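Schema walkthrough. Field components (list of strings):
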Amino acid sequence: MDATIDLISDMGYHRVSIESIAAKAGVGKATVYRWWPTKARLVVEALGSRLEIAPVVSTGELRVDVRALVHSAIEIFTKSPLSHVLPEMATDLDDDPEARAELIRFLGPARAGNLSLLYSAAGRSELPHDVDAGLLLDLICGTVLYRRLLGRRVNSVTVDQIADLIVDRCLPRSVSGFSPTA
Amino acid sequence: MDATIDLISDMGYHRVSIESIAAKAGVGKATVYRWWPTKARLVVEALGSRLEIAPVVSTGELRVDVRALVHSAIEIFTKSPLSHVLPEMATDLDDDPEARAELIRFLGPARAGNLSLLYSAAGRSELPHDVDAGLLLDLICGTVLYRRLLGRRVNSVTVDQIADLIVDRCLPRSVSGFSPTA
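Field assembly_structure (string):
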């Protein structure tokens, strides 16, 4: 597991072979395949066992909490191994429903905690009672991940823009001193 | 170029080698490397020369136009070769600024057209005059792409939810008859 995380963190998902993981772990390739039928499953399990993806701890104040959600997405999707490993696995996940299910299980507790935080704000009437909190979380993660893929800036301006959108329902503005993100 | 698109459409970016592209095109590997120093540049140029990514044609009505933007993102990020090739290139693009610049050039005309559509709505005061239209486009594309990576539903409900958010500034609701997207 450590060998897997070390290698994919350095090199990315696709440049690492099962052979090189087995070699680094000091075991045979057949041993690896006995436990993990595909590279996608091995990598997802390694991420699950070695990467801490924690939910945001609610402060009870929606703006603070939403800002923390965006910060957390920036940590995960611009800095952690998931930032490149998750997108790189796109085709493999399409072909490997068990690996995708394992990925969703691994991300599940953090997601559930973050959903709880948003529904708790809905309980205080700070969000609509029937808000689709799952879509809001995907919007936060997706915006950050997409900008990272194209090499576009993700910073404190982005945090403000997304918090303003969700908390105040203000569409994102171009901030003076920054050029529009065209 | 056709050989490249055919192979990556079928197999994904990482399972295709320069060798297999050269073989399918009936040329030597050295010939391919003479023109394209990296696989990322070859693939981005092939996408640019063979894939039509058109901007949405404005109707002058914001809701219709935003719905068309979301539909267009769904076409591109759940159906076209870009849907898996772009995420799969994550690590290679980080290491290959020329390939990323070429990708941004290839996506540029469609993005410029879509920015024009949103700024035109701002000109009619249907959006804030200083709206960050680039972020709105990234939000639309990113939400669709992220949900596709995790295998979550992207459909007409998603189109309605994003249009309601941008046009009416209503946060996404869980639609009756659909379970929340937890």
